[in-house]
Amino acid sequence: MQYSIQEIGTILGVPVNKEGSDKISILLTDSRKLALPAETLFFALETKNNDAHIFIGELYEKGVRNFVVSKTFPEWADFGDANFLKVKNSLSALQKIAAYHRKRFNIPVIGITGSNGKTIVKEWLYQILEKDYNIVRSPRSYNSQIGVPLSVWQLDDDSQLGIFEAGISQPEEMGKLEPVIRPTIGVLTKIGEAHQENFVSLQQKIMEKLELFVNCDVFIFDEDNHLVAECVDQMVLSQKTFTWSRKSRDAHLYISAVKKKGEKTVINYSFLDFDDSFTIPFTDEASIENAISCLAVALYLHISPTGISSRMAILEPVAMRLDVRKGKENCIIINDTYNSDINSIKIALDFQQQRKVDRHLKKTLILSDILQAGIPPGSLYKKVAGMIEQSGVERVIGIGRDITTHQDLFSTPEKSFYLTTDQFISSGEWKNFDHELILLKGARRYHFEQIGALIEERIHETLLEVDLDAVVHNFNFYKSRLLSDIKLVCMVKANGYGAGAVEIAKTLQYHRCDYLAVAVAEEGIQLRKEGISLPLIVLNPEVNGFEELFNADLEPEVYNFRILEAFIKESERRGITDYPIHLKIDTGMHRLGFLPEQIPDMLSVLKKQKGLKVISVFSHLSASESWHFDDFTHRQMEIFRKAAEEIEQAFNYPVYKHILNSAGMERFSDTKWDMTRLGIGLYGISASGLPGLKNVCTLKTTILQIKHISSNETIGYGRKEKLERDARIATIRFGYADGLDRQFGNRKGKVLINGQYAPIVGNVCMDLCMVDVTGIKAEEGDTVILFGENLSVIELAESIGTIPYEILTSVSPRVKRIYIKE
């Protein structure tokens, strides 16, 4: 739907300074996702980490003419044909516009909140109800203060039902989202400890979440949760409740029995004096609870028990994250078969563009029919074709009857269409992929996993999952602890601490990191080849490596006279001036760096030349994570302050100064420097125990075989372990060639299988190791976690007397990296 810019001004109660016929169809909060400038209204949001007002000039140059701002800059005076709608708060303005838009629709709207299960319930409700309604729902987990209004904005004249989820992380947030969603049907999913840190109690968090339901017609929840029931009474919501219970027959919906049978669960229920049952293809408790919430909604909407039963039986798992994998023939595969609606296609295309920093990769899209879109196929695929053209996709492969029928709407340089996935596979076209960034986007019924299996590079079943959302969270977590003008240098050396430097660097570049740092020039050259354009510091440059530094635009650390004089000589030979360097000062670490007493001589050398320019001066804290050495740390910082002042005074330009590392930012964030360096903290490891970071890397493998071994038998090479009792021993696909230190053998280490710890027994082998699964529900083929969310790298490192850095960087290159993102 479109609004005139005059209507937008009226909604916000602010004047529009330029008369015109501008029609707004896109609300934009991320300048990197610009698609149709003429129809875009940009909201300049201010956060702890960013001020989007600085991107207005860039957007104006690209054709955007309408902006919601909370302040003005003098240079905007030259933008005479632009509208600047000035408000007190741009985020509040975004929510106000979405709330106005929501009021235009007299349709049922389901609002979902809770601690866990929101997205699953939303997606399962879509699967259950899509035959009866044209549904608009939150894309992925767009449930934040920004995501909710952007989701609701999707409502249009064809919409018959809305399903939106809302998440909060601190008090007074839900009250802002309630008028935006304005649910007629409310659903509260499982309440847990997620995002509890900003609430004084679980009760306070529940009360806050219940704010979403104050104006709804009906509110659905589990009355067996007594704390929730008490909060409902306090909120005076009891007159509009639809409760379900496994204990009380007085509930509106009584769950009389739950029976697990193999891979399925049969749920018996009573509702309005009739009894019925349905089966779901899941057995875990979370899925059972989520299915019951969906049942209650379906019953309220008068879906027949027969319809409910048939649709519950074919519920599909919700893969809430897309992943990035290495493909054959130098391809990269973005696998996103989460859903196939038009909004998720736009999000996936945006993510593909984020990854398109290497200009040598052709952008390819493999797309299935879009199911249950609710609009005529001709209009649908015209809109999809427009999105694809705007995103710069160069090759489209369409699979399905509808998309094939409308293939003439697509104008990409290369295109081909097939009625079925089997037909595409049989054609052999997949064998021709070469240096392509391939986005797989298909509805589940098209089984695109078959395509993925053909084009994915197979290395080793063991894999390291790298959560890119967690990387972004940790990056912003540290940024929020700094003043907005302090630059952040992120470490991606040692292959991104084992996580994969290229994908980490692409993510950081997209999120506007200031600097990256690598150990050696070769690491920086590889990033340049992959399209990374951020400034790159090389921490350990070689004296004879100036040519490769210069050719790849890499900035060396200079730490002694030998390398300083060599670089000066080389710059003079080449006629280079003001090449950027970073001076390192040894303030007590005693590893690399000029000693303070060497600074006068070093400055004398620098002032006599023009080839090099000092961009920053820095030092390294020896023990910033330890309270025991705080006196030494403060002494280091004082030595550095004096040295940096001496260096800066020698030049007629400002020089960046940085000494804080991850632990330093955690413990001394009030110390004022121009830059900071983020290393291990970016990857989810807090050296000082600071809460709030997210786990980035999860190392997984599988059980190859399980045997029953009698007591007194020995396990593994060297017969180092003799069993003291009968045991079930599982052999897993991971050994010291994969990065498992041999010290973990003989019960010093452990793994996680189906939520239970299993000790490593016997000596670790090159490609395998054995674990004791006695008493654990484990089967051959089950997943084994070597480290991750519930088995921390810190815990593992401590068990063998090492540090998390070693555990992370030891993961072998033969272990496949998979990058995941919501």
Describe this structure in words.
The protein has 822 residues and is an alpha/beta fold. The chain has five domains: 3-93, 3-Layer(aba) Sandwich (Udp-n-acetylmuramoylalanyl-d-glutamate--2,6- Diaminopimelate Ligase, Chain: A, domain 1); 105-312, Mur-like, catalytic domain (UDP-N-acetylmuramoyl-L-alanine:D-glutamate ligase, 3-Layer(aba) Sandwich); 322-458, Alpha-Beta Complex (Protein-Tyrosine Phosphatase, Chain A), CATH 3.90.190; 466-683, Alpha-Beta Barrel (TIM Barrel); 697-821, Beta Barrel (Lyase, Ornithine Decarboxylase, Chain A, domain 1). 30% of the residues lie in helices and 23% in strands. It contains 26 helices and 39 strands. The strands form six sheets. Strands 16, 17, 18, 19, 20, 21, 22, 31, 34, 35, 36, 37, 38 and 39 form a 14-stranded mixed sheet that branches. It has a nine-stranded mixed sheet with strand order 8-9-7-10-11-12-13-14-15. α7 (202-210) crosses α8 (226-234). It is globular and about 90 Å long. The two termini are 27 Å apart.
Compact overview of the structure:
Helix 7 (about 200-210) packs across helix 8 (about 225-235), helix 11 runs parallel beside helix 12 (about 375-390) and helix 16 packs across helix 18 (about 500-510). Strand 14 (about 265-270) and strand 15 (about 275-280) form a beta hairpin. This protein has 26 helices and 39 strands.
